[in-house]
């Protein structure tokens, strides 16, 4: 703890600090708990989105097994061209939300390629969208982890350092001021006793 002044002004300062810390701590702790709940929800959403990608790719393999054996080139058939993100404010933390995704389909002749290529294009579009959703969900989890860590650090700072330090400072100052007050009272009594003794000596000399 930093050196503190043992004075009434410092006592008032420390009491104000303690009051402020104790007022802020519940709201900080509530924010931490709300962020933790949102983090758990976002992690679940990320797992579900990843599972959706796996399920879709499995479905493509089962629905269109000919893709693996055909000599038809399907590389670059569908590419993600751009996507647009919105923003969601969750307990003061700004999180991305996927609003739009644009995919580009390579030019191909419908006559020169079998009909299943059209189905594959649709599936690849879905896959590109799901993979983008995974990226956005991963970013949400990362930002929430960061927010939970920062808020937890602040809660710990208040709980374990600032509040105990202010309480200890108040205790030290009050003990010191109490000792000073008792010392002043004792000195006052001694002074009065000396004055009384001197007055009695003077009165005794007069008689």
Describe it for me?
With 207 residues, the protein is of the alpha+beta class. The chain has a domain at 25-162: Helix Hairpins. Helices cover 73% and strands 13% of the residues. It is built from 3 helices and 2 strands, in the order ααββα. It has a two-stranded antiparallel ribbon. Strand 1 and strand 2 form a beta hairpin. Helix 1 packs antiparallel against helix 3 (116-206). The protein starts with 7 loop residues before the first helix and ends with a helix.
Question: What is shown here, in short?
Answer:
The protein has helices at residues 8-63, 66-69, 116-206; strands at 78-90, 93-105.
Number of H/I helices: 3
Rounded mean pLDDT is: 87
Placed side by side, the strands forming the largest sheet appear as 1-2
**Bulk shape:** rod-shaped
Order of SSEs: HHEEH
Q: Summarize the main sheet.
A: 2 strands, antiparallel
Low-confidence stretches: none
The helix content is over 70%
- Structural class by secondary-structure content: alpha+beta
């Amino acid at each position: 703890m930093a050196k503190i002044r043992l004075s009434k002004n410092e006592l008032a300062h420390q009491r104000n600090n303690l009051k402020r810390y104790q007022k802020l701590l519940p709201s900080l702790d509530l924010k931490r708990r709300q962020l933790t709940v949102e983090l758990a929800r976002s992690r679940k959403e990320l797992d579900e989105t990843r599972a959706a990608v796996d399920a879709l790719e499995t479905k493509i393999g089962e629905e269109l097994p000919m893709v693996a054996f055909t000599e038809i080139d399907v590389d670059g058939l569908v590419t993600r061209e751009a996507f647009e993100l919105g923003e969601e404010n969750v307990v003061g933390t700004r999180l991305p939300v996927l609003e739009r995704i644009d995919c580009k389909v390579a030019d191909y002749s419908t006559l020169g390629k079998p009909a299943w290529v059209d189905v594959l294009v649709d599936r690849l579009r879905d896959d590109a969208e799901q993979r983008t959703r995974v990226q956005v969900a991963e970013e949400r989890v990362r930002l929430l982890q960061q927010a939970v860590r920062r808020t937890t650090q602040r809660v710990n700072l208040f709980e374990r350092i600032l509040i105990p330090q202010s309480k200890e400072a108040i205790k030290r100052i009050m003990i010191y001021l109490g000792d000073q007050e008792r010392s002043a009272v004792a000195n006052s009594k001694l002074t009065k006793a000396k004055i009384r003794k001197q007055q009695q000596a003077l009165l005794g000399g007069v008689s």
